[in-house]
Amino acid sequence: MLAVAPRRGELFSFDTFRPGMSNDVAHRGRQEWGQGLVNRLKAVFFDIDDTLYSTSQFSKLARINAVKAMVSMGLRMEEDECLRELDEVVREFSSNYQHHFEKFLLRVGEDAYRGLNPAVLVASAVMAYHDTKFKQLQPFEDVRPVLEALGRTDLRVGVITMGPQIKQAEKLLRLDLIGYFDPGAIFISDQIGIGKPNVKLYMKACRALGIWPVEAMYVGDNPPNDVDPPNQLGMATVLVRRGGKYAGVGGATEPDFDIRDLTELPDILRTKFDVNMT
Q1: Which residue in 70, 69, 108 sits closest to 88, CA to CA?
Q2: How many Å apart are CA 275 and CA 83, to the nearest integer?
Q3: How many helices (H) and strands (E) does the chain have?
């Protein structure tokens, strides 16, 4: 069994690890990187949502189009009012809930669609949402060049993401990014049975690749989910501040590196980890 090594010679196992055992791991890691003592970096993991593409922007546009579709089918509500109610549904039931539009119709009441078949309204919304997905889902401009550069290194490049397994996998396919990632280094919370911010999700990924957490880097946008847990394990953490929905959210710990977009990542890998980025 792979042990977690916050520092050379100081080992504790996956099964006996507790978060309180490594409160100073991130501090030690930063000290070691600064002194050039850290183990050679072997893997870089990425979050997907609002890290590789704009989840916030895409979701907003897709919901607007879904609302327009229902109104065009006869729903008797103003589009702005529909959108407010739908946004509340998403907030209350989470973005990964599978029946947003059904719940939306329940809460607005039958008067808004009397004489109409609610299944047709839901279907029109689903179609509009997915049509937006087909046409608008694109990675950030900086993503593909950086992944291409990483592909020319000896680093294993992977994903650690939170959400339903098919939905998250579909994003990688629709973004046309799947080919940049090691097939054995894609970890989806729903598939593993461990969600963020549980540190075991990150431990599981490192153990599956046969590496120490201090030999891995995680790149994400949500401090409580993408910085604090890997910090506890001694992973290198990179916070991407793209201005998405977590722009004003703080975590319990600081990232090791704070960047505006992925164009800054190659220089970090080159200067701090001696990775040959060509």
Answers
A1: 108
A2: 47
A3: 11, 8
**Alpha carbon distance 50, 64 (integer Å):** 19
Q: DSSP 3-state assignment of 82? A: helix
Query: Two tokens at 170?
Result: 């579909």
Residue count of the chain: 278
How many whole angstroms from its chain centre is CA 70? 30
Give 96-153 pLDDT, tens digit per residue. 898 999 999 999 999 999 999 999 999 999 999 999 988 888 999 999 999 999 999 9
**Structural domains in the chain, sorted by start:** 3-53+140-273 (3.40.50.1000), 55-136 (1.10.150.520)
The per-residue b/e assignment along 240-253, b for 16 or more CB within 10 angstroms, e otherwise, is bebebebeeeebeb
**Residue pair 128/65 in contact by the 8 Å Cβ criterion:** yes
